Amino acid sequence: FRLNRDGYLDNPSADLLKLIEQSVEYSEITNGAFDITVQPLLDVWSAGLWQESAEVQEKTISETMELVGSDKIEVSGSRISFKKDGMKITLGGVTKGYAAAEALKVLEQKGIEHAIVEVGGDISTLGSKPDGEGWQIGLVNPDNPQESLAVFSMKGISVATSGNYERYFSPDKSSSHIVDPRTGYSVSNCISVSIIAESGLQADVLATAVFVMGTEEGLKLVESLDNVEAFIVDNEREVHGSSGINDYLVDSQRGEN
Predict the structure, then answer these.
(1) Which residue(s) pair with 141 in the sheet?
(2) pTM of the model
(3) Are the beta carbons of 174 and 113 closer than 8 angstroms?
(4) Most buried of 44, 58, 66, 229 (most Cβ within 10 A)?
C-alpha cells in the first residue's frame, strides 16, 4: 500500500523484495504477459472503462500504458521505487502460490512429511498422502460446478488455475478481470488454465501468463520450461495439454493433447 501510495518504499521486507524481484524476472520470461505493474489498467477497467466507446477505451488505455512495465521498477536491497508517478503494482497473481509454498516450509520444518496447503485455489503439496498415493486435486467444470473437468494426482508439486468464468469487470461478463499488460485490454482467449510446477509461485505466475497468451503461445512457453505442465480449456471448450500433462491426470480424466 505504501509503495503504491508514495512510489517508493525504504527497507522493504525480505518477502516483499523477493516477490517483486521474482515477478520482474517472470515478466521477462513471459515477454510481458505477466506484469505486476498492470494495476493502473485494472483500476480504469474496474472504474467503468468497459462501458465506454471504443475511442474512449483506446485513448484511456494508451495513456495508462505509460505507467505499465516492470522495467520501470527499481529494486535495491534497501529500496523499491517506481520510475513514473502514478505507477502501481498488484501482487494478486503471485502471492497465493508463494504463501502456499511458504506454509509448506513451516510444516516441513516441524517434521511433517505429508501435507497439502490451499490458498485461494492455489495448491501446494508436501510429499504424497500418508498411504503413498498422490493427492487428488479436482479442476471444477465451469459449466457445472458439481463436476470435475479433470483430476490431477500430485506428489510434492503445486498447481494453480486462472479462469474467466467467475470474475468480470462488466455485469454482462463481456470483460474478463484478467488484462493483458502488453495491450491494456481484457483477455478471453481461454476459459481456464491450470499450471503444474515445482514451485507454488511459478504455478501461480504462469497460470496468469498462459491465460493471457492463449493456447498456442502459452503452450510454447510451457514446453520451453523445465518441470512445468499445462492443462488449458479454450473458448470452444476444447482441452489442450502440454507434452507431459498426462503424467499427472488420473486415468479416467485424461485430456487430449
Answers:
(1) 144
(2) 0.90
(3) no
(4) 229
Residue 94 three-state SS: coil
Q: By C-alpha distance, which of 27, 43, 45 is closest to 35?
A: 27
At residue 164, the pLDDT reads 65
- Residue 240: all three cell numbers together: 489442450
Distances in Å between the alpha carbon of 203 and those of 60, 206, 219?
Answer: 32, 5, 14
In the predicted model, what is the mean pLDDT of residues 211-219? 95
Task: With CA atoms as reference, report the closest residue to 206 among 159, 172, 166.
Answer: 159
Q: Rounded distance, CA 257 to CA 52, Å?
A: 39
Separation between Cα atoms, residue 112 and residue 135, nearest integer Å: 15
Give the pairing type, strands 144-154 and 115-119: unpaired
Phi and psi angles of residue 162, each rounded to the nearest 5 degrees, phi first? -115, 135
Alpha-carbon distance of 179 to 151, in angstroms, equals 28
Q: Which three cell numbers stand for residue 214?
A: 492463449
DSSP annotation string for 196-219: EESSHHHHHHHHHHHHHH-HHHHH
Q: Is the pLDDT confidence value at 253 over 60?
A: no
55-73 mean pLDDT: 95
For residue 129, give Cα distances in angstroms to 40, 87, 132. 42, 44, 5
Coil, strand or helix: which one is 83? coil
Residue 27 to residues 47, 110, 131, 140, 172, Cα–Cα distance (Å): 26, 34, 39, 28, 31
In this structure, what DSSP letter does residue 121 have?
A: T
Q: Are 161 and 148 in contact (CB under 8 A)?
A: no
> 150: helix, coil or strand?
strand
Of 120, 113, 116, give the one whose Cα is nearest residue 136. 116
Q: How far is CA 118 from the centre of its chain?
A: 15
